[in-house]
Amino acid sequence: METNHTAAEAAITDQVIERLANTPDPRLKTLMQALVRHLHAYVREVEPTEEEWFAAIQFLTDTGKMCDGMVRQEFILLSDTLGVSMLVDAINHRQATGATDTTVFGPFYIAGMPERECGENMAETPGRPALVHGHVRSPDGTPVAGAVLDIWQTADNGMYSGQDTAQPAGNLRGRYRTDADGYYAIRTIVPVSYPIPTDGPVGRMLNATDRHPWRPAHLHFMIDAPAHRKLVTHLFNQGDPYLDSDAVFGVKPSLQVAYEERPAGHALASRFGFDGPFQEARYDFVLAPR
Ligand SMILES: [Fe+2]
Question: How many A from CA of 40 to the centre of ligand 1?
Fold first, then answer.
């Protein structure tokens, strides 16, 4: 009897795969048939009760309902916290191009944020004043002029504008452009560690699996330049306590940067308008040619 059951179960999988055989788009056919194969294998492995299967459907339903336009994207959060986002990232960046390492995009980007001058302060809320600057270059060292650096980070309360309606929309966000030497400069505040939102299904999953929701402090970058591949990455604060346990598995050693204390009156202070001590971080990005 055992064998008959197994045969009947296997037949369901075969039937579904067969039903997908006429999919006109070959890539879609591959994606759908593999999805069915792996999904059925998972079900076969864990043998869910009907209550468990319904709970899984309810979990995904709740995840969709939690999504809210630009402000909340619970499915990205789920992909990030299950390590799928970083796996997709790794697969798509296997070849060494000499470019800066990539990491997760995350759910908090907002398009169309203010264009800012070199060195302009993007912080409208308090924090430890900081200057983040450096160059954008090609792998051969050629400066990349006119690269657009789209930046986003949380306020000192650990929340992004958009998430936190008390913040001005453009707070700690903006688009900077490199000059003819490929130089960029961002005046901001030192990023802080923050917990990803835990008031939805992803938070329930983290809690049920005894995981913390914290991300090490970081600044998000999306860098775009003509004739180069777009770069999506972060700069993490060196020494952050969560570097080894990022809730979304995004940390890479090459993406850590030190913020160093500079005294009032430092050579860079007057150029960038700091009237007291500030923290300086330097980082050079490399973009792969397209
Ligand atoms: Fe972030």
Answer: 34
Place of tokens 């400069």: 185
Q: How remote is the CA of residue 108 from the centroid of ligand 1, in Å?
A: 7
Q: Which residues pair with 279 in a beta bridge?
A: 130, 261
State the distance from the centre of ligand 1 to the C-alpha of 194, rounded, in angstroms: 8
Going from the Cα of 159 to the center of ligand 1, the distance in angstroms, rounded, reads 9
Whole-number Å distance, alpha carbon 38 to ligand 1 midpoint, is 31
Single-letter residue type at 239: G
pTM for the model stands at 0.91
- Give the Cα separation of 182 and 66 in Å (integer): 41
Q: Report pLDDT for 110.
A: 92
- Could you tell me which of 264, 110, 128, 117 has the C-alpha nearest to residue 188? 128
Domain ranges in the chain are 2-81, 85-286
Average pLDDT per run of 10 along the chain, which is 290 residues long?
A: 74 97 98 98 97 98 90 92 96 88 93 96 97 97 97 97 92 98 98 96 98 98 96 97 98 97 95 96 96
pLDDT at 198 (0 to 100): 96
If you classify domain 85-286 with CATH, what class do you get? Answer: mainly beta
Distance 106 CA to ligand 1 centre (A): 6
Rounded distance from Cα 35 to ligand 1 centre (Å): 30
